[in-house]
Structure formats: structure tokens, C-alpha cells
Design goal:
Strands 1, 2, 8, 9, 10, 11, 18 and 19 form an eight-stranded mixed β-sheet that branches. Strands 5, 6, 12, 13, 14, 15, 16 and 17 form an eight-stranded mixed β-sheet that branches. Helices cover 34% and strands 25% of the residues. The longest helix has 28 residues, at 341-368. The chain is α+β, with helices and mostly antiparallel strands and 429 residues long. The chain starts with 6 loop residues before the first strand and ends in a 14-residue tail after the last helix. Among the domains are: 79-112 and 188-285, D-Amino Acid Oxidase, Chain A, domain 2 (2-Layer Sandwich), CATH 3.30.9.100; 385-415, no CATH class. It has helices at 18-29, 54-63, 66-72, 115-123, 176-180, 242-247, 252-262, 264-267, 316-336, 341-368, 372-383, 386-395, 399-403, 408-415; strands at 7-14, 34-37, 51-52, 79-81, 83-87, 93-97, 110-112, 131-134, 137-145, 148-155, 158-169, 191-200, 211-214, 223-229, 233-241, 274-275, 280-285, 294-295, 298-300. It is built from 14 helices and 19 strands. The structure holds flavin-adenine dinucleotide (FAD). Flavin-adenine dinucleotide binds at residues 14-20, 37-40, 46-51, 138-139, 170-172, 176, 194, 196, 237, 239, 282, 284, 302-304, 308, 313-317, 319.
Length: 429
């Protein structure tokens, strides 16, 4: 090692959002020490829809089943959610429970929680025996050196440096590691722009806290969402494709506010609602294109690796999943003292083997959703057919079922009410 460093570690993780904390927790499970950096002071906010899907809950159960029990026992921070309501461009809605039979479930299949609460809860799970957490520490520079990576950091006004054998870029959309080491560029066709505002007292919320996706025509293939939160609050927001902002000359804030005032289904529900926050926006890097997720002495996780579902906009579950695979590959890299691009490439393989078909299906659905007439037609049909409602419900939990949506024969069968439009038939691929 060429010079004196303030900190030295095998593994440095930059960012303590869901991706970074997941990496830290899975590494700790393997007894692997590391340093976790975040520039923020926690609890800190993050612009998001605040929806926690079944994938997140499943991964929590893998980490430690006690986590979901703790969430269920804290209704002031975690609201259990039992389903989703889709509202088609023509205003017609369908309500889909997340699971067909929920009587025997120990807890809800999904939750909503403000990120200021959720991220703090998740961070509190780190194990200090293995995780050296450096809060309020911003990484200013990351550089490859022979034998390692050097980080220049700022902690409480002081400039320090750190030497790591490998670095995990978990800094979200603006990740320094993604820009400097992976040399990734913004691709506006694979990016959503979103904004959200917290409201109090939105009326006609679902009694089982279903999350709502309103596919208003102006936002397609994006949507406006209303996600219920504890204490009679709701996270209300909108997301559109970034390239549409330019091509269709969309002013997102205006579109959002106009929809809440003039859309007949929404205006009545916001009549007595009160905003309780500013409107804040951020980017959603979509996993609709494959990228290099690793290289010589670095891995990218979560939004830094652009893993957000291109249809639903969910990124928390995939961020946590990527942390799990990153920890798996890092353990072997440390054991073999091999941090080469070739050795770390195993991470790309493991993650995309698990995730790529799901991301592709969602991307195909995103493209279909651009056609309002098709969307209206599907929702109309599902609205009137309980078997189809089951099919659609299971699509949230079953990727094979979701695959049906991209098959032209599915729509043909739907049109003529043939077998194959509902759950008990074989998949039509
Ligand atoms: C409008 C909107 C709505 C969304 N809705 C949902 C939803 O309902 N459900 C869902 O699952 N997903 C949703 N997402 C996506 C979700 O927010 C992200 O996928 C998720 O936060 C990714 O986690 P992450 O850990 O990769 O990054 P982040 O959560 O962004 O965390 C990154 C962390 O890195 C730290 N950091 C960054 N740079 C540095 C640095 N140089 N030095 C030190 N620390 C640094 C930051 O302080 C931050 O704490 C939404 C996103 C947006 C924008």
C-alpha cells in the first residue's frame, strides 16, 4: 500500500439506502467485515412512492423473519397493504388482491412506509461487529490504483482518505462509482422522471389499503399513484418516461396538479385533502436494458445498477436482491483475493439470471401500455370476469403468469373469450 490512509478495508460500500444496507446485512451473515458510507444523517428522506412489494417482504424473511414481524407490530410506520387497484385510461378500475387466499397469511403481502421511516428501520438492522458505519461521510472521489481503490471523503468538514480492495457503488441514481468507474451515461429512453407529494385526508381510500395506479392518458406508459400511508396520509405522485417530457412537451408538476383538480375520479377525492409536504422529484433508472454491473474492483447495486422495474417503477426489492448477490460474489472475491473484472463478472451473471426475464416482461408490458385502447379493453374484460381477475392478481407474484401479457394470443383469447384468458389454463407463450 503506497501511503498512509485514514481508513483501510477489504470492502467499501458507498450508500446506505436499501441496496447498500442489504449488501452490508448479507455480508454480515457471512461474517465479512466492511465499511458502509453515507453522506446523509439518518433518518433521511428519499423521494419515492413508498410502496414495499412482496419481493421486499420475501427478502426480509430470508434475512431475518423477525423484521416483518416488527413491521407488522408498528402500524404507525408500516401500513399493511393487501392489493392493488388499476384504473385504465377510460377511468374503469379493477381491484386485485395480491394473493388469492389470504386467510392463513401471518402478515400482509405488502406494506407502505415513508422512506424516512423505512430506510432508518432497515439501517438499524446492521451488525456493528461486521459493519463499520460512517454516517455523514460523503465520498468525493473514487479512483482505481494498483492493488485497490482509493476513496477521498469528507466527514464533518474534514478531508480523509480510505483504501479498499473493492468498492460497492450503492449511491443511487447519481452514483459516483457508476459514473467514474463504470463510465455509465444517462439514457433517457430507459429513465422515468417522477415526483411525489404527501397528502392528508384523501377520501375513498380502500379499506384494505390497496395501492392505486391511475393510468391517465397523458402519462402513459407511466401513471399517477395514490399509496395509502399510516395516519390518514397518502403518498401521491406521478411518473412518466423521461424522453416523453421532451418529445411531448410535458411539464410534470402541471400535469400532476391538473389531474388532481380536473380528472373526475380524482378531483372529488382531493376536495378536502391537504398537502403536507412540498412536491419533490427524482429520476428512476429502469432495468429495460442490460448494463455492465461490475468491473475491475467494483460492483454496482440498486439504482446505481439501474434495476427498477420498467412497468411498476418498483426498485426497492431489486436493490435488496442485488445486495444479496453482491455479498455472495464479494465473499468469494475476498477469499480468493481476486477482484479482477473477470472474477466479479459472476455478479452480473447471477443477478441477470435471476432478474432479466422479469425485467424484459415488464418492459414489454410498458410498451403495450402505451396503447390506451388495448389497456381499456383488457381492464374492461377483467372487470367483468372473476377468473380473469384471479389471473391478473397472480401476475404480481408469478413472473410466468406475467409473461402471458406479452403474448398476442393472450389478447386474441381475451377478445373472443376463449380458454387461455384465465388462470386455470396452460400458459400461452
Ligand atoms: C418518484 C419515485 C417513486 C418511486 N416509488 C417506488 C415505490 O413505490 N416502490 C419501490 O420499490 N421503488 C420506488 N422507487 C424506486 C426506489 O426509490 C429506488 O429504486 C431505491 O431507493 C433504490 O435504492 P438504492 O439503495 O439503490 O438508492 P437510494 O435509496 O437512492 O440510496 C442511495 C444512498 O447513497 C447515498 N449516497 C449517494 N452518493 C453518495 C456519496 N457520494 N457518498 C456517500 N453517500 C452517498 C445517499 O445519501 C443515499 O442514502 C421510486 C423512485 C422514485 C424517484
Amino acid at each position: 500500500m503506497p501511503k498512509k490512509y485514514d481508513l483501510k478495508t477489504d470492502i467499501a460500500i458507498i450508500g446506505a439506502g436499501p441496496a447498500g444496507v442489504s449488501t452490508a446485512l448479507f455480508l454480515a451473515k457471512e461474517g465479512m467485515p466492511h465499511i458502509l458510507f453515507d453522506k446523509a444523517r439518518f433518518p433521511r428522506d428519499k423521494v419515492c412512492g413508498d410502496g414495499l412489494s412482496g419481493k421486499t417482504i420475501g427478502l426480509f424473511n430470508e434475512l431475518n423473519p423477525v423484521l416483518v414481524e416488527q413491521m407488522s407490530a408498528a402500524p404507525e410506520r408500516f401500513l399493511p397493504s393487501w392489493g392493488v387497484t388499476f384504473i385504465a385510461p377510460n377511468g374503469k378500475g379493477i381491484e386485485l388482491p395480491f394473493k388469492k387466499d389470504m386467510r392463513d397469511l401471518k402478515h400482509a403481502p405488502g406494506f407502505t412506509s415513508r422512506r424516512v421511516d423505512f430506510d432508518d428501520f432497515f439501517l438499524k438492522q446492521i451488525d456493528p461487529r461486521f459493519t463499520n458505519f460512517q454516517h455523514e461521510t460523503e465520498i468525493l472521489q473514487v479512483e482505481q490504483r494498483s492493488g485497490g481503490v482509493t476513496l477521498k471523503l469528507k466527514k464533518q468538514g474534514k478531508l480523509l482518505n480510505c483504501f479498499a480492495k473493492v468498492v460497492v457503488g450503492a449511491g443511487g441514481t447519481a452514483s459516483l462509482t457508476a459514473r467514474k468507474l463504470a463510465r455509465q451515461k444517462i439514457q433517457s429512453q430507459h429513465l422515468f422522471a417522477g415526483l411525489r407529494m404527501y397528502y392528508e385526508n384523501v377520501s375513498e381510500m380502500h379499506p384494505q389499503n390497496f395501492i392505486e395506479l391511475h393510468f391517465i392518458p397523458e402519462a402513459l406508459p407511466g401513471y399517477l399513484w395514490i399509496f395509502p400511508l399510516p395516519n390518514n396520509r397518502a403518498n401521491v405522485g406521478i411518473g412518466v418516461l423521461r424522453k416523453d417530457i421532451k418529445n411531448k412537451n410535458i411539464h410534470l408538476k402541471t400535469l400532476f396538479q391538473k389531474a388532481l383538480k380536473t380528472n373526475p375520479a380524482l378531483a372529488r377525492r382531493f376536495k378536502n385533502a391537504r398537502p403536507v409536504s412540498s412536491i419533490d422529484g427524482w429520476r428512476l433508472p429502469l432495468g429495460s436494458v442490460k448494463r455492465a454491473l461490475s468491473g475491475e474492483r467494483f460492483l454496482l447495486t440498486g439504482d446505481a445498477a439501474a434495476l427498477i422495474d420498467p412497468f411498476t417503477g418498483e426498485g426497492i426489492g431489486n436493490a435488496i436482491l442485488s445486495g444479496k448477490f453482491a455479498a455472495n460474489v464479494l465473499k468469494k472475491a475476498v477469499e480468493n483475493n481476486d477482484f479482477s473484472a473477470a472474477a466479479l463478472k459472476q455478479y452480473d451473471r447471477l443477478l441477470y439470471d435471476d432478474l432479466w426475464s422479469e425485467l424484459q416482461i415488464s418492459y414489454n408490458i410498458q410498451r403495450l401500455v402505451r396503447l390506451p385502447w388495448l389497456f381499456n379493453f383488457v381492464i374492461n374484460r377483467v372487470h367483468n370476469n372473476s377468473r380473469l381477475q384471479e389471473t391478473f392478481s397472480s401476475m404480481f407474484n408469478d413472473v410466468d403468469m406475467r409473461a402471458r401479457l406479452r403474448s398476442p394470443s393472450f389478447y386474441f383469447r381475451l377478445l373472443f373469450n376463449l380458454k387461455g384468458g384465465a388462470r386455470d389454463d396452460k400458459l400461452s407463450k
